[in-house]
């Protein structure tokens, strides 16, 4: 399993789930990111997540297929 991190900018409190998927190139487009989440393919902090605009904050862990992304500040 590949482990990765995403560091929030100092001015940002959170990043939305679909934005993270696009930035990390897990999804090719915003539409693709929405489909991935709607299909239940993403877990946040160990639970299946269906909210496309879920606010991810420092300490959250996003898991999808073979990728685990830790959100840091």
Structure commentary:
A hairpin with a 2-residue loop joins strand 6 and strand 7. The protein has 73 residues and is of the alpha+beta class. It is 22% helix and 33% strand. The strands form 2 sheets. Strands 1-7-6-3-4 form a 5-stranded mixed sheet, with no helix packed on it. A two-stranded antiparallel ribbon has the order 2-5. The termini are far apart.
Task: From the structure above, extract its key features.
2 helices; 7 strands; two-stranded antiparallel ribbon; 5-stranded mixed β-sheet; single chain; Structural Genomics Hypothetical 15.5 Kd Protein In mrcA-pckA Intergenic Region, Chain A; alpha+beta; 73 residues
How would you summarize this macromolecular structure in one to three sentences?
With 73 residues, the chain is an alpha+beta fold.
Termini gap? 23 Å
- Class by helix and strand content? alpha+beta
Question: Biggest sheet: strands, sense, closure?
Answer: 5 strands, mixed
The secondary-structure element order is EEHHEEEEE
Number of strands: 7
What's the shape?
globular
CATH topology: Structural Genomics Hypothetical 15.5 Kd Protein In mrcA-pckA Intergenic Region, Chain A
Number of helices: 2
Total of domains: 1
CATH superfamily: RNA-binding S4 domain
CATH architecture level-2 label: Roll
CATH class: Alpha Beta
Radius of gyration: 11 Å
Strand order of the largest sheet: 1-7-6-3-4
Helical residue percent? 10-25%
What is the arithmetic mean of pLDDT? 96
Quaternary state of this entry equals single chain
Percent of residues in β-strands? 25-35%
Low-confidence segments, given as residue ranges, are none
